[in-house]
Structure to design on (221 residues):
């Protein structure tokens, strides 16, 4: 096994060891340090794995989650779906994959809502919605390319925030919420002339994440 393979395995091992610490220590350098210690790896790999600290760890986790989502999409299944169905399918798939990590996702969203992390959060959101659109077969390269991603980012942020507080069986309330919100995305396809109003009426992703952070602080008081 090459050194690059060893490093890749080390990063995955550290990720798995870190996530259980996140509900207690938040999405933080402290949680990452605890994960590195628990992983019990050779000191060289522990040092090299995430030299950029929690920021690099965050980029790795979100990138891995994006790839995991893409790998699980079945082209034949998607082919039989409408665009609306594909969007609902890919968002639902992402939430299902993240369900075992829901508290870690909550902590990550709170961390990304901090002012100093919002640029990074925007990068992560863009990468995710871009992966979603590409994963379901979108090939647009014109103005639509950007408007689709901007709109879906707001929808995904709203749905994730709702999902984090959903205690209904099988997340039925989230499913219903997603179905209603997806109408905003479909408006782009049905009435492009109303695009500016659609985007204006959608919630700002970071405003939503800010509410999540404030809610967490309130619960600690």
């Amino acid at each position: 096994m090459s050194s690059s393979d060893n490093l890749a395995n080390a990063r995955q091992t550290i990720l798995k060891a870190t996530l259980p610490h996140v509900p207690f220590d938040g999405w933080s350098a402290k949680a990452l340090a605890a994960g590195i210690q628990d992983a019990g790896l050779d000191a060289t790999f522990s040092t090299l794995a995430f030299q950029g600290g929690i920021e690099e760890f965050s980029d790795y986790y979100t990138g891995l989650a994006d790839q995991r989502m893409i790998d699980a999409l079945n082209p034949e299944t998607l082919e039989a779906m409408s665009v609306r169905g594909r969007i609902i399918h890919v968002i639902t798939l992402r939430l299902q994959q993240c369900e075992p990590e829901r508290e870690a996702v909550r902590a990550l969203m709170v961390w990304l809502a901090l002012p100093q992390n919002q640029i990074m959060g925007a990068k992560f959101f863009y990468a995710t919605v871009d992966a979603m659109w590409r994963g379901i077969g979108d090939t647009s390269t014109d103005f639509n390319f950007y408007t689709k991603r901007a709109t879906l980012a707001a929808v995904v942020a709203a749905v994730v925030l709702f999902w984090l507080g959903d205690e209904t069986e099988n997340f039925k309330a989230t499913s219903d919420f997603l179905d209603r919100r997806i109408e905003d995305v479909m408006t782009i396809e049905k009435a492009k002339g109303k695009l500016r109003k659609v985007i204006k009426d959608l919630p700002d992703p970071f405003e939503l994440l800010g509410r999540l952070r404030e809610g967490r602080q309130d619960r600690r008081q």
Observations:
- The chain has two domains: 1-51, 55-220.
- Residues 55-220 form a domain with the Tetracycline Repressor; domain 2 fold (CATH 1.10.357).
